[in-house]
Amino acid sequence: MAQHGEGVIAPEDDAVHGGTTTGTAVEVAHENAGSPGTAVVPTDGVQNPGFPPHYPRRTDVDPKKDARAERQVSILFYLSIVGSIFAVAAYIAFPILPGDPGSIRTNNLLLGLGITLGLLGIGIGAVHWAKQLMRGDESVELRHPTRGKEETRERAVEIFKLGNEESGIGRRSVIRNSLIGALVLTPIPAVALFRGLAPASDPIKPLQHTMWAKGTRLTRDPTGAPIKASDVTLGSAFHVIPEGLNDKTDLLEEKAKAAVLLMRLRPEDLHVSAGRENWNYDGIVAYSKICTHVGCPVALYEQQTHHLLCPCHQSQFDITHEAKVIFGPARRPLPQLPITVDSEGYLVARSDFHEPVGPDFWEREL
């Protein structure tokens, strides 16, 4: 007898073609073959194979091999300690000398070997510990997306305790102590390296003082020609550097601190505070050219308003009120350079600036 159904071939069916048997295969399809919303569960899906069989390791069955593996792990951690100490010692014993390429190669080689030994000792030791001494069978734990119940949380604490027991860190004191020592000493070479990036001398002093000193002539930037008081006309502005700056080997560094802008106003327009009465000469004033915000050059002078403008972040300083900040992100006025004239009529400094120039730094208290 032929079977009917969707997609079923009926080779012989007397009901087809008026009951006559033709011997011809025909395809018969039922109208009600099934709901399109019915889920189909495949019967040939991949089955969960489960965990592979657990085979005990040599360290699981032989106490001697267990003790041997523990010693090996601790030795690797101690090698990490030795590498970290060696890196610091090499960094100090073989410093980089200016103009000596050989010292650079030696320092880099020994320092790299020490750091490599320090890191590899911890890494290989941790892997060897996990493979030989920690619990080796596999397990599965369901992950809960929300905060679990109190029973679940208590179970988590138990799992942590179980992890401590399985890793053996609580009872294997040799491994624990050597690991702690390795982890404590591993960052030490990095600390030594970062310390080496700092200046060899006190970094504060160079920021507090410039080339200006008592009797230093004010000269034009960049020619270095000295400036007489008679050269500075009302409303004019001069870009100024200290005399002798062009002869310095560190010209740019010194200029970044000592650059000055020189202007002449009417003496009655100046509002001079107590103690600064002799810091200007006949209306001629000198202020640091370095903005107190982030150190940009304050080089735009408005003759009518007597304002100095920083082109970087638009801080404005009022020269008539001792370069007080009137707009912008700058936090303090431009430092004023006390000036006078010498016996030949040239403008000279009375002293260095009385405060650090440029942007605020970490040792300054406002």
From TrEMBL:
It is found in: Cell membrane. Residues 1-66 are annotated as: Disordered. The keyword Disulfide bond applies. It is a multi-pass membrane protein. It comes from the Bacteria. SUPFAM superfamilies: ISP domain (SSF50022). Residues 17-27 have a biased composition (Low complexity). The chain crosses the membrane at residues 75-97, 109-130, 179-198. Its cofactor is [2Fe-2S] cluster. One of its GO terms (cellular component) is plasma membrane. Its main location: membrane. One of its GO terms (molecular function) is metal ion binding. It holds the Pfam family Rieske. Keywords: 2Fe-2S, Cell membrane, Disulfide bond, Electron transport, Iron, Iron-sulfur, Membrane, Metal-binding, Oxidoreductase, Respiratory chain, Transmembrane, Transmembrane helix, Transport. InterPro entries: QcrA_N, Rieske_2Fe-2S, Rieske_2Fe-2S_sf, Rieske_Fe-S_prot, Rieske_Fe-S_prot_C. Residues 279-348 form the Rieske domain. Residues 57-66 have a biased composition (Basic and acidic residues). Belongs to the Rieske iron-sulfur protein family. Iron-sulfur subunit of the cytochrome bc1 complex, an essential component of the respiratory electron transport chain required for ATP synthesis. The bc1 complex catalyzes the oxidation of menaquinol and the reduction of cytochrome c in the respiratory chain. The bc1 complex operates through a Q-cycle mechanism that couples electron transfer to generation of the proton gradient that drives ATP synthesis. This is Cytochrome bc1 complex Rieske iron-sulfur subunit. It comes from Galbitalea soli.
